[in-house]
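Hi R.,

As promised, here are both runs. First protein below:
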Amino acid sequence: MTARMAFLTRPAVVVGLLIALGAAGRVYRIQAPPFDYHWIRQYDTAAIARNFAEGAMNPLYPQVDWRGDSPGYVESELPAYTYLVALLYRIAGIHEWLGRALNIAVYALSAALLFALARRLLTERAAVLAVFFYTVVPLSVFFTHTFQGDALMCLGALTGVYFFQRWTDSAHVTDLVVSGLGVSLAISIKPFTAYLALPLGYLAYRRFGWRGLGKKSLWLYAVGLWAMPVLWYRHAFHLWKEYGNTLFRGYARVDLPGVTDPFWLDYAKVIVERVVLVLATPAGLTFLVVGVLAKPRDGNRVLHWWAAGLAVSMVLMNEAHYDHDYYQLPIVFAASIWMAHGAVLLLERGLLSRVAVAALCLGTVICSGWRLHDFFQIETWDDRAMAFGQRVAELTEPDALMVFVQSGDDPRRGEWYQHRLAPGEYLLYNPRDFYLSRRKGWSLSDSQVSPELIDRLRQRGARYLGTFFPGSLDKNPRTRPWLEATQKRVEITPRWSLYRLVPPPPTAP
């Protein structure tokens, strides 16, 4: 073998090529508007980033567009991702692809760190395979491409576990500090990542036994990593109390149905389906099962404790995990290492040939591409929604407060009603029409719309009412006749309706 060929077989070089190919693949549709899978979450994230860039750039005050007549400050996760995107906006202008590009960079960092962790737990060959699986499985590909902060949260979690394991081996205080910063970031972005206490506690016990309870460094670590999350969530709660906008209230809570509730069976089916289709893919499922069941190298079960921690959070925050598959994104790291371990074991023990393993790896790529097709799908009506947003921008004043009416209600428990109009009275938080039209205001469900509510919003400064779903104005039979008789048409088409709300007469002095 020539020196050049030997260089190309070095694990670090192969990993670098895999990461480069993975980054190139994630550039697919990088300039597309965030209309694909989980578009509501993406538009909200994009709106907060844009509001930072166009405002005072104060990281303590993230702002949403469905704010009513408030300044829009919102109770939310730590806006680390949106603030970084806003910094890019300040440099290069407001382009959504910059938010996607940031997550692609986060993918590259995560893949490199995953290689380092997998090499500690397994062999270099298995570590290379772990990076391959992390690069190609659907859950990783899509959510390290979307306009969301979850990839950054996962990088924080991976940093926490990797550097804590290094610290248990080296006792270098720098490793402990970096681990604490990673875990602190992860919890500040998603509170449920407090489950990392299980894998970290396992690593500490594996190294120190019960003596770890007396180690001052571990107590300082635990207290230090909670400082930022506690301070941030306390501040975020103040924003909710003061301004009445939240991204938490509807779903970020512990709500345990009864043991016999049929929800649990449905939930289990959904999770199994996700494991098969978006975590391992049907082609890679054998690798995953073998890797999970096989004895870990050196008896290190940190991945099992990581998965157990996530499982606890899936029980406690069941509806959040049920609704949002990206909540399971952190387990991709463990799954990728298990899949690599399974593939290597099947090969080394002669149960599968190299050709068979290569075929299943190729099958994983093909299955992933098949599944991702649906995730990236943008429907025809999405283009029409963009046209509606552009039309609203053309026909209304930039500072005019809007009322946008949406079709349908939240089918469960009001998690979409997260703007407080009055004590105990909540409105929708759908961000799409606001983002596309660059307007602010109120979002209503069609079941809420009535002449009385519209008139209240008009008294509070609303100047236009628009809807991309014209039939939503007919759910209450009094709404459309009242609009036609008392307000002014701006534009009525088969696809949307837009009215100007007549300003109320000035009050007498």
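And here is the second one, sequence first, then its structure tokens:
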Amino acid sequence: MATLSATERSNESPRAPREIEVSAPTAWPFLLALGAALLFAGLVTSTSVSCLGALLSLAGSVGWFREVFPREHEEVVTVVPEDIRVTTTRRVVERLSVLPDQVRAWLPVHTYPISAGVKGGLAGSIAMAVLACAYGVLKAGSIWYPINLLAAVFYRESSRLGPAQLYSFHADAFAIAFVLHGVVSIFVGLLYGAMLPMFPRRPIVLGGLIAPALWSGLLYTILGLLNPLLASRIDWVWFMASQVAFGIVAGLVVVRQPSFPTRENTSFALRAGIEAPGTMPPRESGENH
């Protein structure tokens, strides 16, 4: 018996059928489902409903069975060929450059210097202070009101001030609030400088909206323990506005600073300062060692 070779079988690819046979449409399954529903519904209503459901279920079962026996009821459907082309609207992904002696690239590839975080924190602290003082003037009638509330976080004497004393100037409270606000702002700015390179797309959304919302939600839950006086007098609308202002200003200042490649993406010889051929530029003959 002659057989076809593998090449001949691959060349004789069967043509796609122009017509196919599918099951003919029928309403018997719907009638069976309706009968089953009435059969169980009669258990909580009346016997006549169950009897009707039983009759419909029996009729649906017999009718559905006769759709396949003794001969299956089918109909012929014409196959309409369709030219399918797979396309995508996604953006092209830029490949990260990897050094020859690396297995993969470390993320983030570029980061910001520490000075960028310090500058962003100081700029954000100014924006936050402006909104906080505006709240004190417009809502409380005194620019010293938010300053005394902030000092009460760590300064016990500020937490003991009466309602009238919160609206007056106190040098010790002002100094503590000034230092506290500056230190915390610088630390948050450093955090922004470390986080924003990990989110290269829309970093201001993270720094100006997401991070302030998370930070405010955390403070809302624990502020009663940290500063009961501030928790009882804080205006959360103005507080959120000042946090968003800090995040936007600090984020803008950080992302506008020049970035540099992270040390993880350089060879070990360069990170360790070892002179190796091909990894460090050669020195001139007149240079001092």
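A quick note on the second one: The longest helix spans residues 114-140. Let me know what you think.

Best,
J.
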